[in-house]
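Hallway conversation turned thread

IA: we were arguing at lunch whether anyone had actually written out Invasion protein IalB, involved in pathogenesis end to end. Turns out nobody had. So, for the record, here is the sequence (201 residues) and right after it the structure tokens. Reply here if something looks off.
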Amino acid sequence: MRDCCHQKSISSIIVALLSLPMSNFVAHGQQGTPAEPVGVETKMEFSLRGQRDARAIKYGDWRKFCFQTPGAKTVCRTTISGKWETGQSAVRVDFIEREGEDAARLQLFLPVGLYLQAAARLTVDQGKPFRIPFVWCLTNTCIAGDRANPALIRQMETGQQLKLEVADTNLLSVSTMLPLSQFASVRKAAASRIFKQEVDE
């Protein structure tokens, strides 16, 4: 019974997050620092000490899910997930769009144990990196998110690979490569599943 209630609670939280306007998302994990241009790579105030190999991650296909809540616009996310060989979730990338709005949001679910000030960086093929700041951490995952830079969206639609790079607490760079060949077609296609969230009164 407790597990059931816990799952419902998590589901409600996720739907609530997806229902927020794009402009309401701010980098709470970076409070006290000036706002930076969205998705722009900036000069680091620290130096990475090197890099280390990431554990092998197996990625599934890109999929599109939509969420409908009474009285609110439909929110869709084009998403891809990666797991370690143990079957444990390692990475999830969500591209979130709200019906009738031009702005989109990128949201990354990453393991704990990262150096949050470094933010996450996304690079398509051999292009320039885009900085995605961390927003908050839960018990077993840290979330980075920001409004998606239009240039990054265009690159993701035409590119082949998306490099996701983070720094661990030892200031070592860790990266993984995600496939992009299906991203554009899945994003433009109909949702593979639609979730309808009822509002409890």
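OS: looked through it. The radius of gyration is 17 Å.
IA: good, adding that to the notes. The domain at 51-195 is CATH 2.60.40.1880 (Immunoglobulin-like).
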